[in-house]
Design a protein that fits this description.
single chain, about 575 residues, alpha/beta, Rossmann fold, Trna Endonuclease, Chain: A, domain 1, 3 domains, five-stranded parallel beta sheet, five-stranded mixed beta sheet, 15 strands, about 45% helix, about 15% strand
Length: about 575
Amino acid sequence: MKKNRNMPVVKLPMGIENFERIRKDGFYYVDKTRMIRDLLENIALVNLFTRPRRFGKTLNMSMLKYFFENGTDRMLFDGLDISREKELCDTFMGKFPVISITLKGAIGKNFAEAKSMLRRVMGKEAMRFPFLQQSDRLTAAERSQFEAFINTDQTGAFTMSDELLKDSLQSLSLFLQKHYGRKVIILIDEYDVPLDYAYRFEYYDDMVGLVRALFEAAFKTNDSLEFAVLTGCLRISKESIFTGLNNFRVYTIKDVRYKEYFGFTDSEVRQMLEYYGFSSQYDTVREWYDGYLFGNLGIYCPWDVINYCGDLRDGSVTKPQNYWVNTSSNDIIRKFLSRAKTATRNEIEQLISGNSIKKMIHQELTYRDLDSEPNNLWSILFTTGYLTQCGIDTGDLTELVIPNKEIHWIFVQQIREWFHQETTKNLEKLESFCRAFQENDVAAIEEGFNAYLKRTISIRDTNTRKEMKENFYHGILLGLFGNMDGWDVQSNAETGDGYSDISIEIEDKGVGIIIELKYAEKAAFDTACQEALKQINDQNYEEKLIDDGMTTICKYGIACYKKRCKVISG
């Protein structure tokens, strides 16, 4: 979309995934409509696209719905790439009955609750076609069955039986085909979410059985089906959900076809930044939100780019934010860390230090595979977007990296949370370590911190900025001190003539503690410790503590290198 100087700047669609609303209400739209042409040229009976969350799957499904559905507003596509395909548009646009659902909400803490939510999903979709109740092209029995789909009880809950629910997609397809005289397109977004929740809340087998029955009826024995498109994060075929389908294609993040349609390409990001006057932010956006490889094409996370541009326009931020982390749970990383042995933790260190590792990736997984084989968690991290591919496969091995600064931040945060959980398992030992700072016991501090460093995951790559390395150790100490009652712990607080790394006031003891951390380049511990103490003294960091009534001041210069440290006091 190019900016017309005579027109107001259009709004950014932050959190909006409805194609019609984006087009009618004048939101910025990155044109992905060529996907329609490519889909029709390579159509299979069932087409599954797997991509990480927040890469535009839902918006693309909405686009497909508004293109194919009977009676669509053709003006929605005016000026878009697909509108240049006049013959294709005349043949396919607005010519099909479409069933469009998302299974994102078909979840619950138990099977009964999840099944009730699936009834709601199917019932609400059936209610989009009320004319079927009076259609003279349906038999009386079919009209009666349709009414059973939309019937509710006094609480508003849909009451269709389990058997009707299993047949709902197939039956609704039949009714729509008979009414319109044309086969039906089925669109299912987030198809794997119900299985994810079922796995978490331990009703997995029941949910697999229900989804299998629903999909087999819809896709295997459905003569009313023109074609279907499904999206999700994981490719779940070993579950036999799609049993017996001969005309079934899956497009994953490793496939070249459709590579540009989920997420933003570099040129699309440049164009958006130029349109809103943020071209100067290009390098920042690339470092934080780019880095994914789909097929052989570099891709940005669209959710992040749109939200960052929107916040820049509002003036609410001045630097990049982590938008992806707030869209769903990141428990997968913590679960991975909890199971990691020494070799795996070393590999994680390599990743967060900016290096790559090589792993065998299995793109067809069941949720049971997560527990049966710990190495499968690498595959989950890859398919869900926490890791991405770099280079081409070497035999059966895929080279993996953390894609960008945003995901790097998520890894570091999850490591810190995991480490906090690990260290608080022995509170007596933790308090003893912290008290050593109050008692000026340098040997105990050094011994304790070295012990903790051996148990955590460090940043060790020499290409990582020194400041980032120091911040990592800084964060570990802050996490340890955070368990002490009565300690006022300040990070990067203004004091004296600068900002101390960590300052602590223990009011009831009148003790003030100042800590300056340095990364010991090439293990030059003594030099780094002396440099840290010199900074404390030169910058008068103790001044505020004295003003606050601290009568005893403890100063520590701490130097860290990989998983070792040295401590001196002064």
